[in-house]
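Need a sequence for this fold. Nothing fancy.
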């Protein structure tokens, strides 16, 4: 009798997630989305239901189908009904979608999916994209073009379904998903291309509740009338370290407590997976960190803990490596040592810089912390410092992360340590002398980061020649209605115009939605001279692209146009430095480019605090020419007159 009960329990536990038979050695990784907080309306975007299930790609070749997860786990034997329906499609294709189980009202339920054989729900594969058709790559087509192709190739089926969308009305759609008890919605740029394996701002996910995937590190003993365990101890991966993020005892039923306990018992180990000491109300039984779950919570604390976490379900399709908080960078300074909880002290020669609140979450959607910002800048300091030295800094501070609008703190020198250089300058905007910090060394950069400076904004001129900048900047600033392809086209026209007058020029991403074109000036000309030259270049560019560019500064008068901004070339103006992080989703970085990279495949989302250090290690600094001897402005103007 006891053996029969034990077998029944094993059978029940097996239904608590898909049984993965094997992992493919070669597979396509799907395009990923960034999480944002609020819905929006925009005619250039489409909005889809966020299906609560398992992401799955399907490769169809003849009657052969490979159905697999985002990590390459083969789903054919787990969901044979889906695989057999896909085999009926008569076109070779690579599809992207979500496997879900819906209840009788058509609402997807992850709980039903985990036990779909016994749940009585309807197993379905909602397809929302196509990456290739008959061997031809479709990733370069716009999203709407791909979805039209998708509708044509899908067969009529109760299992394989086309995931439809609406255009423009994101706020109403989000409200409707909430009323119907759905998890949320996806927002996708209508003209977006498909970037396999990349996370991009052209795809966004917006949930009704904050959720987080975390690995289970242990469990506490139950109290009172509760059985099996009290709470799950949760963590996330940060570089090579595993970090504690909280514990949850909420969200369980008697059945799920029993099932979870049966999964955890075989994983018990003596040692904690965390290097830090974890404080809980009850003693912890540690387990190997292999199970990943999803929890909802109200907010992140300054210590990097989830407030009020509630267990939702296990995520057997996810692994420990996907519970990333951030990646730790190598430092050219002495590694930061702890002074007290969440604080670090960095040593640069004889200078010590105390930093605080390392675990404070700065990017809630990505789990990136204040400490990650500090470590990034230390890691790339040799590359960014030439663009900062001897330049007054306008400190843009975001001490509470990117959801805080932040503030400018120009008059910061008086409060700084003695090893931080500064200069007093008259500010027309405040009508008084301002004590500007000069970021002349690495300790100062770290000090600024500790103040909450996510982005670094230097003047265009140095204290050696405050009225004669090192370079000219043309800032290509798109409206929300412009595509990035239009920004790229505009940058290339600016490049061509400058090349015609033989003015050396360089390009970098803004780290947001625009591009910056630089021309070296070598401290030979005044701001007014440079501003006038930039204005002429912008006028010539606008003549070639009148349909979507403008020199009109006023937003209302400009309309849905790319602003060709020549007014950045004024004394005291600042712009994000090369290699500066921007306080935008994904922790994007303003990154110098080869002009051959400024093409239709360029996406600003591909440059972030993870990819840029690797890029610098591979290709080095390609922007140093902006600090060169500079152009001959008089000769360029003469060539301009001849050309026109």
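Here you go.
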């Amino acid at each position: 009798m006891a053996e029969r009960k034990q077998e029944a329990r094993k059978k029940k536990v097996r239904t608590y997630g898909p049984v993965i038979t094997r992992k493919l050695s070669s597979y396509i990784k799907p395009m990923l989305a960034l999480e944002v907080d609020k819905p929006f309306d925009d005619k250039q975007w489409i909005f889809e239901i966020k299906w609560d299930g398992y992401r799955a790609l399907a490769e169809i070749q003849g009657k052969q189908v490979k159905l697999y997860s985002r990590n390459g786990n083969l789903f054919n034997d787990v969901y044979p009904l889906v695989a057999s329906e896909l085999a009926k499609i008569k076109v070779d294709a690579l599809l992207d979608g979500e496997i879900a189980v819906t209840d009788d009202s058509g609402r997807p339920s992850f709980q039903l999916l985990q036990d779909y054989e016994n749940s009585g729900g309807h197993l379905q594969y909602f397809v929302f994209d196509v990456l290739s058709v008959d061997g031809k790559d479709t990733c370069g087509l716009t999203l709407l073009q791909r979805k039209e192709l998708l509708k044509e190739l899908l067969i009529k089926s109760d299992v394989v379904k086309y995931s439809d969308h609406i255009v423009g009305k994101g706020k109403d759609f989000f409200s409707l998903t909430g009323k119907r008890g759905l998890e949320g919605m996806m927002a996708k740029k209508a003209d977006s291309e498909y970037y396999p394996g990349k996370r991009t701002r052209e795809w966004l996910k917006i949930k009704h509740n904050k959720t987080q995937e975390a690995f289970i590190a242990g469990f506490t003993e139950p109290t009172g009338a509760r059985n099996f365990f009290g709470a799950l101890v949760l963590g996330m991966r940060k570089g090579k370290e595993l970090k504690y993020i909280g514990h949850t005892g909420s969200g369980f039923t008697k059945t799920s407590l029993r099932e979870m306990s049966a999964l955890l018992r075989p994983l018990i180990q003596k040692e904690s997976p965390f290097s830090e000491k974890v404080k809980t109300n009850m003693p912890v039984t540690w387990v190997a960190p292999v199970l990943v779950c999803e929890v909802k919570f109200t907010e992140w604390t300054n210590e990097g803990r989830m407030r009020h976490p509630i267990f939702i379900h296990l995520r057997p399709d996810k692994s420990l490596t996907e519970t990333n908080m951030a990646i730790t960078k190598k430092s050219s300074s002495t590694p930061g040592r702890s002074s007290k909880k969440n604080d670090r002290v960095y040593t640069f020669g004889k200078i010590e810089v105390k930093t605080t609140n390392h675990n404070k979450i700065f990017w809630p959607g990505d789990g990136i912390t204040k400490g990650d910002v500090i470590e990034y800048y230390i890691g790339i300091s040799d590359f960014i410092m030439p663009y900062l030295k001897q330049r007054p800094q306008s400190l843009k501070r975001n001490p509470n992360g990117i959801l805080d609008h932040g503030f400018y703190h120009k008059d910061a020198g008086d409060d700084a340590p003695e090893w931080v250089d500064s200069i007093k300058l008259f500010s027309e905007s405040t009508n008084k002398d301002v004590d500007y910090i000069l970021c002349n060394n690495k300790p100062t950069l770290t000090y600024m980061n500790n103040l909450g400076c996510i982005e670094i904004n230097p003047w265009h001129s140095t204290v050696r020649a405050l009225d004669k900048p090192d370079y000219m900047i043309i800032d290509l600033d798109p409206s929300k209605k412009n595509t990035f392809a239009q920004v790229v086209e505009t940058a290339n026209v600016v490049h061509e115009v400058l090349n015609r007058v033989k003015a050396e020029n360089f390009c970098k991403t803004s780290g947001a939605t625009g591009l910056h074109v630089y021309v070296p000036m070598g401290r030979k000309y005044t701001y007014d001279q440079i501003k006038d030259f930039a204005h002429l270049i912008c006028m010539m560019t606008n003549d070639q692209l009148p349909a979507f560019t403008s020199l009109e500064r006023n937003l209302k008068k400009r309309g849905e146009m790319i602003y060709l901004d020549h007014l950045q070339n004024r004394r005291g103006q600042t712009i994000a430095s090369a290699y500066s992080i921007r306080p935008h989703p994904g922790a994007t970085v303003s990154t110098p480019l080869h002009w051959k990279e400024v093409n239709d495949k360029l996406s600003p989302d591909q440059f972030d605090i993870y990819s840029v250090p690797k890029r610098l290690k591979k290709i080095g600094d390609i922007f140093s020419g902006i600090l060169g001897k500079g152009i001959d402005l008089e000769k360029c103007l003469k060539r301009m007159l001849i050309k026109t």
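For context: The CA atoms of residues 146 and 208 lie 28 Å apart.
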